[in-house]
Design brief:
It is a single chain. The protein is mainly α and 71 residues long. It has three helices and two strands; from the N terminus they run αββαα. The protein has helices at residues 4-26, 45-51, 55-58, and strands at residues 32-34, 40-43. A two-stranded antiparallel sheet has the order 1-2. β1 (32-34) and β2 form a beta hairpin. The longest helix has 23 residues, at 4-26. The termini are far apart.
Length: 71
């Protein structure tokens, strides 16, 4: 049986990730969120419009224009 505290922590983590994803996607400016290795975690709708790249083409990959992008 999974402890209640663990289930609650997992639910709170999922909600937090959802809130952050919504914030990034709906930001009124071109915004990209990366991890510590410069892989794209999310981009705003304005970023998609500004750079003309599909969200699915960049999420999970190195940020375009970085040294990691060329590897």
């Amino acid at each position: 049986e999974i402890p209640k505290a663990r289930l609650q922590a997992e639910a709170e983590r999922a909600l937090s990730k959802s809130v952050i994803a919504t914030f990034v996607q709906q930001a009124p400016v071109p915004l990209v969120m990366t991890d510590t290795q410069m892989r794209v975690l999310g981009v705003s709708d304005r970023w998609v419009e500004a750079y003309g790249l599909a969200r699915s083409a960049v999420v999970g990959r190195p940020l375009p224009g970085t040294a990691e992008d060329e590897v």
